[in-house]
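Risk mitigation, structural track. In case the binding assays with EPU fail to produce interpretable data, a predicted complex structure has been prepared as a fallback.
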Amino acid sequence: MSSQQHSLKPFNTFNLDRFAQELIIATTPEALSAAWQESQLRQQPVLLIGEGSNILFLDDFQGKAIINRIKGIAVKEGAEAWHLHVGAGENWHQLVKYTLEKGLPGLENMAMIPGCTGSAPIQNIGAYGVELKSICEYVDVLHLATGEIERLPTEACQFGYRDSIFKHKYQYGYAIVAVGLILNKKWQPVLSYGDLGKLSPQTATPQQIFDTVCQMRSSKLPDPAKTGNAGSFFKNPVVSVEQANAIMAAWPDAPRYPQADGSVKLAAGWLIDRCDLKGFAIGGAAVHQQQALVLINQHQATSGDIVALAHEVRQRVGQKFNVWLEPEVRFIGAQGEQDAVGVIA
Ligand code: FAD
Ligand code: EPU
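Fallback model:
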């Protein structure tokens, strides 16, 4: 019998045919902790997975994959806000729908983001003008070695653009088991992004925003159930104002988003598009036609095809603009996470 029996195909939205030595579904913090501790005793690598929508498997995983399916949604009404306690294994988009059905608005701009609620704090998910950090009250983190659960208030999570403490100090030896959300009863529509600007701030409803976001997303992002992908493959690069000005001088239509600290965020999709890479393919992997920031598994791509394509995209953008893109997607090798920039450089 092969030691690589457990398919990871249902657990990575790139739909790559990869395997893990062992795979367990954990529905409680105790089960998660026990599975991790057992692997520690055997010095076996462990990988936590939600829905695998931000993961690229480079290889078969020579260890235990733990799929987090801790469920449960509890809602408490406060004087000024609704407080939600959500199990880490709850699907994010279903949660967005559930809150709207219950008349608890605030998550509508973040509709259709794949993945588990427990993964949302890790890269501080964001879309259409709203980031998780603005509605997150706390994150419950399990210390896997001891089984203790620590509650981190939002201020302690070090949320940034596609960043948090869960990519740094709390990356290894910890699992997110629940997320606390706070939805203000004084709801304000956020209409700053794209077609949302066509809605009126006076009359826009949460459901209209939800529908508009779903339409915009469906028009440019591929559905992983049909075409494997992990959303934006790269982060939008943040550069100095001098570098942004140099790019604007040569390409005045380049989108730019000034940041609070004086730096400037550029649109990676625009940079890739200007290199005429839409539709560009290596093996079974391709740059998506409708959104150049998304790399797709067009036709039975291998991990190597996707890595080679990411390398080529990074080189072409770097050579043209002297901006060196960094993956947003997490690269998982046989023993665990690898440095994604190192792999594609
Ligand atoms: P996974 O891919 O399973 O895991 C991601 C990382 O977190 C891995 O390193 C994993 O080991 C670790 N991890 C998983 N669970 C836990 C846990 N419980 N505790 C600790 N560590 C854990 N992102 C956005 O921000 N905005 C978007 O608009 C957006 N759009 C997308 C559109 C598409 C079509 C796709 C495919 C992806 C998109 N993404 C977007 C990226 C993705 O949806 C998010 O990163 C999501 O939060 C990942 O959730 P997941 O459960 O799939 O995480
Ligand atoms: N653009 C192009 N060509 C392209 C793609 C984009 O010219 O092929 C231009 C657009 O016209 C626009 C700008 O680039 O002026 C930005 O594009 P878009 O609005 O599509 O957003 P994005 O920066 O590419 C980010 C997030 C998405 C999120 C959307 C909406 C990152 C890395 N990506 O994409 O998140 O859904 O904004 O808020 O920040 C993800 O993280 O996986 C993800 C999908």
